[in-house]
Request: fold
Amino acid sequence: MSTSDTKRPVAKSAAREKASDKSGSDAFRLSGRHIAILATDGFEQSELTEPKRLLEEAGAEVSVIAPGGASQIKGWDKKDWGKSVEVDVALSEADESDYDALVLPGGVMNPDKLRLEPSAIELIKAFDKSGKPIAAICHGPWTLIDAELVKGSTMTSWPSLRTDLENAGATWQDREVVQDRQLITSRKPDDIPAFVGALIDQLAA
Reply:
């Protein structure tokens, strides 16, 4: 075989390797758990697909919930439209009692649309009232402001949300993951391993 035919190993990113290592140790920790991801068009691609993958590898069943009657929602991948994901449950049919935790991906468009959906805000409030984990990453915490869950909480987010969160009564920290009661928040896609790890730890405790 010539050297030109030899396949070179594909290098993994540090974040991907960290996520893979973490998911291996977390296998089956969430067996029997059902987790909701609430999103709509314009969600940041990796902030939905990677948490979904890692949570499923940990043994959880994960359902994507979205407003409207669409069978798919389209992601935003850094600077342009990305891939679509299947919608499992219409927001109008979603019931907090069917799930153990809620994940809120970021993307600028996604939470900006969801915060105008009264049923989305009511679902978030229902998770809070039940004391179930709510994990929001990047721009995802925007919806927590409208759900009135920010005042008195310590949290993080994409940096541009800092003023909005502080004006709503939060204490903002620049950390990869912040946990305050059942709220789990992170800043950006690079934080996904820590973000998902914190949610797994809280659900498996």
About this structure: The longest strand covers residues 80-86. The helical segments are 14-25, 45-57, 109-114, 118-129, 142-146, 162-167, 192-204.
